[in-house]
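User: We ran a pulldown and think these components assemble together. Before we commit to crystallization trials, I'd like a predicted model of the whole complex to look at. Sequences follow.
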Amino acid sequence: MSLATSTAPEPAASSTDSAGGRKALRRQRLAETITAWSLAGPALILLVTLFFLPVFAVFAIALTDWQFGASDLAFVGLGNFKEVFADEGFRASLVNTIVYVAIVVPGTISLGLVIALLIESGKSCRAFYRAIHFLPFMATLTAMAIAWEPLLHPTIGLVNQTLASLGLPTANWLRDEGTVLPVLAVIGIWQNLGYAMVLFLAGLKSIPQDLYDAADIDGADLWFDRLRTVTLPMLGPVSMFVFIVVALRAFETFDTVQVLTQGGPGHASEMLLFTLYRESFQYLRTGYGAAVAVVFLCIVVALTLIQARVLDKRVHYQ
Amino acid sequence: MSTHSPQGLSSSSAVMRHAALLITGALILIPFVWMVSLSIKPPGEIFRASFSFWPHEFYGIENYTKALTEAPLPQYMLNGVFVCASIVILQILICAPAAYALAKLDFPGKNLLFAMVLIALLLPHEVLALPLFILGYQIGILNTYAALIVPYVVSPFGIFLFRQFFKTIPDDVIHAARLDGLSELSIVWKIMVPMALPAIIAFGIFSVVGHWNSLFWPLIAVRDQSLMPPPLGIMAFKNEEAGNDYGPLMAASTIVVLPLIIAFLSAQRWFVEGLTGGAVK
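Assistant: Here's a predicted model for the assembly, 599 residues in total across the polymer chains.
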């Protein structure tokens, strides 16, 4: 802290003895400010350049008819948004994304919770079971999507072979409009349930033993009674959190669509990020793509804020 | 639930627990197991559907050789290592001093800066891709390593996480270091970062796993095969060379997934902490 000796302007400096002390204090403050900003400066500049200017730019571009590479552009107001919402492809993409999220979120949360409860209900092999169920979450999804493809292959796929040998109907999972989205959702659940599980495991660990003892005294002898009166209510805050993060991850699904279906057949598996990518970077419809990005951003931010509010108000330990 | 029955589970429910978890675990592992199985089978056996894991004729050498030679897979892996390492090093270099300022110093604009970090934390990176692409085009870094690295050099999550940890380090430590004549920057690197090492490691894992696995931005930022990180490279391999030649394709997938899985299995606790970091606190 040996910075800045001569600057600090002192408009209100009095001529009493304490002025010197105050002056030193003020000088120290200024030095601390300069130090702080020089430490945080690079981060600040980069945050502005790489996050804030781009986000403003997305909104600005969304209001123009610009196509990447074109030398001129015109202000079109909300024209792109009208076009986006009038576009059948986009509407399909939005609906698909919502359906996908509506399958993945409850599927991931319920399976994650059940597996966490099973793991915590005994002492042996905890780390082993946790590792197995967590594996898909950190495995490269692009590569794993490629590995899912032969599993789902209509003739040589393991899934259809198994179904056929059990005498059950088979399907062309990734090429059938009726099955493609649920199949992608199953892959989404497969990938994320370990994440939910780990969060629930942490939540379970934080439940005080006293509560179980109290429940015992109150006559909650059965496993199910304890689950209902203690475990599940106490998992409230964690569950809300898991809900948010899984929903956000589901909204941001891209890799499986890109690798396995390219949004097809038709628009049956097209989801928002894939639409965003294709319009912005393949068709180079920059203004339109920016409008899609704005819609996507609004959904993600709204979800986060709504859930944060619910988290604040409704769910707490009592 | 941990000790919901004081004397432990009865043996029949313990068996049920293991049975249930082994079944779900096996289902979870099927894609991995089948990927490895196909990667050691010859084309004939792959297309003659069968349930057996082990091939009649071991074809692993051929498949893995093909994966490593027909596509520049080793190059993809090196690109991945270089890009992930550059990103995580730059992130720590840039985020740690900012986090220290936010945690331990008092200055006008501090709340604004922290609010900016929180807002940036809220923004999905994909939304920024279009302007970042244009920015990259303007400064001429598209289709270079820089295009893969620069957008990520500052991590709002990193600043946030480090700030939380730095806050738990007592001020006395910092005062003592100042009396010893350490500059603020040396306090960051010689005191704060070593003391917050668990947070740094957790963040490092979070960052490396995220960027090793990421497809969206690399797909936009680079075209040359020689620059592709593994996910993009393996997608190109699928689209261009392998197609339905599942053997080499599965071999390539196995090679891409393997480093993280080995790292995960050898440092499970760190990975779980890193990838769910902050979430639980």
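Chain A touches chain B through 105 residues (CB under 8 Å). That may be worth checking against your pulldown data before setting up trials.

User: Thanks, that helps.
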